[in-house]
Design brief:
disordered C terminus; seven-stranded antiparallel beta sheet; eight-stranded antiparallel beta sheet; 2 domains; mainly beta
């Protein structure tokens, strides 16, 4: 669902200046962030786990869906089908289908094996905010900004019922475990429990003072939980509508609530960038999870309850667990191959003496003291040099070290938001360096040659070296993940007025659980020589 960016920015400053520097306010449950993945280019609005726990589905305001392997962080190519923001996603109970709803009022049902659209459901006149499957997978419910709830036949796509009763946008819908009731939340500050068979209201729950953004049933069907813009989480008796617990702890509105499969925990996500784990029986705050850098929009649990997945406005999907060691399990997607290369973004264990093969290494280093943060480092090999790129905990490129393989000379560049700040040589062969900040280039003399390097947000974009009678020119192309996919070398001979171009392309191992490897081939079909570190 869409969020007010201005309010979320205010939430960031409130959190920063409210003494929220500790990663975990309480660690009674000892949940930790064990993985962060990024593939969407805009806010992640919704996440949903497959019933076998092997995959996570995410939707985004970039109008796409992505399927992730939560064990490795690998992902498939974004699925495109909506022409507007994807506000909600939901996996079917049998795992064979999933559904998505968008701002333009459309709902799409997808085949989980072929990743093709099965059908598009049209019936809402405004944006679909929430969707959920009936426990038997026969029906789909959708709530929308047109103040209605539609019950669909999931197989035929027929519109079976329209539930009307809310006075403002329906923000959330949730099916009871027995399939007989549907709960809906609304910006009209109420929660309604509906009899699905008759389509009639059973009761209306009132207790929140502002928009109710999320509602969900407990696993045993005895209770409801709701989260509201009034910053509170309420646990209700689903039978009589009584308020059992009112939980306060968030500093801004609550976007989502989600019960753990065993009912032991109730998780809530907020505009204040945090996730809180509550004891639903006594309302106690067990632990506050911090790590997201923008409003946390959605939550889901793996069916075994070991992992909590969150999606946020910082464009990331994060995995949380109290497992002390996260073991990668090779889980290839069944009966299909990704339509694009899949990149494994992180490793938990770093070996100092490990050497890259012909390709890109991506490492995650956990620094326990004095503060917990993640620094990502990648090593890229081209024909004549090695680029070592370092990123801050927000994933921004902050430093590039360029090491020449023939004489071990090196250059070091510091960057901020893709802009070069400084350059210096690490060997006597690098005679002098200078930076042109306006053109975002670095000039340096290397072995008597004048060279110019130009940078973008992914690092080195192109490079030129001049010598008596000619020049070399390298250009580099990167994919959306910032990884090198093409290198073009043009060698110009000024004496003979001729030039020769060699192109090297790179591909990546699909679903790699170890080093992400690549091999290069030039336009003559020969593999370039890439010496080891």
């Amino acid at each position: 669902m869409r969020r007010n960016k201005f309010l979320a920015l205010i939430a960031i400053f409130v959190a920063l200046f409210a003494g929220c520097g500790t990663l975990f306010a309480q660690d009674a449950t000892n949940f930790k962030q064990i993985k962060m993945t990024k593939g969407h280019h805009k806010d992640v609005t919704s996440v949903s786990c497959s019933p076998d726990g092997k995959y996570v589905l995410s939707g985004s305001t970039d109008s796409t869906l992505i399927i992730w392997n939560p064990k490795s962080g690998a992902r498939l190519n974004p699925l495109k089908g909506h022409n507007s923001f994807v506000e909600c996603v939901s996996w079917s109970p049998d795992g064979t289908r999933f559904a998505s709803g968008s701002l333009n009022g459309g709902v799409i049902i997808w085949d989980a094996n072929s990743l093709l659209r099965v059908r598009t459901l049209k019936g809402h006149t405004f944006g679909v905010e929430s969707i959920c499957w009936s426990p038997d997978g026969k029906y789909l419910a959708s709530g929308a900004s047109d103040e209605t709830i539609v019950i669909w036949d999931a197989n035929s796509g027929a519109k079976l019922k329209i539930l009307e009763g809310h006075e403002k946008t329906v923000t959330s819908v949730s099916w009871s475990p027995d399939g007989n009731y549907l709960a809906s939340a609304s910006k009209d500050k109420t929660i309604v429990i509906w009899d699905v068979n008759s389509g009639q209201k059973v009761k209306t729950l009132q207790g929140h003072t502002k928009n109710v953004n999320s509602v969900c049933w407990s696993p045993d069907g005895k209770y409801l939980a709701s989260g509201s813009r009034d910053k509170t989480v309420i646990v209700w008796d689903a039978n009589n509508g009584a308020i059992l617990q009112t939980m306060k702890g968030h500093t801004f509105g609550v976007n989502c609530v989600s019960w753990s499969p065993d009912g032991k925990y109730l998780a809530s996500a907020s505009w204040d960038m945090s996730i809180v784990l509550w004891n639903p029986n006594n309302g106690r705050n067990l632990q506050t999870l911090k790590g997201h850098t923008f409003s946390v929009e959605s939550l889901c649990w793996t069916p075994d309850g070991k992992y909590l997945i969150s999606g946020a406005g910082d464009q990331t999907v994060r995995i949380w667990s109290k497992e002390t060691e996260y073991i990668y399990i090779k889980l290839p997607f069944p009966d299909k191959k990704p339509v694009r290369d899949v990149v494994n973004e992180e490793r938990d264990v770093v070996k100092e003496d490990s050497k890259p093969e012909n390709g890109v290494e991506t490492e995650q280093i956990q620094i326990e003291e004095p503060a917990k943060k993640v620094i990502k480092k990648s090593i890229e090999k081209t024909r004549d040099d090695i680029l070592i790129k370092e990123y801050d905990q927000q994933g921004k490129l902050i430093k590039i070290t360029k090491r020449y393989t023939n004489d071990k000379s090196s250059l070091e560049f510091t960057l901020r938001d893709g802009k070069i700040l400084s350059a210096k040589g690490g060997d006597f062969n690098i005679e002098s360096t200078s930076v042109n900040k306006q053109e975002n280039t670095a000039n340096y003399w290397w072995g008597g040659l004048e060279s110019v390097g130009k940078f973008n947000e992914f690092g080195l974009k192109e490079e030129e070296a001049y010598h008596d009678g000619g020049s070399w020119s390298f250009s580099y192309e990167y994919n959306e993940d910032g990884l090198l996919v093409k290198e073009v070398l043009t060698d110009y001979n000024g004496w003979e007025d001729t030039s020769e171009t060699t192109t090297t392309t790179y591909t990546y191992d699909v679903m790699s659980q170890d080093w992400t490897k690549r091999t290069g081939t030039d336009d003559q079909g020969k593999k370039p020589l890439l010496p080891a570190l």
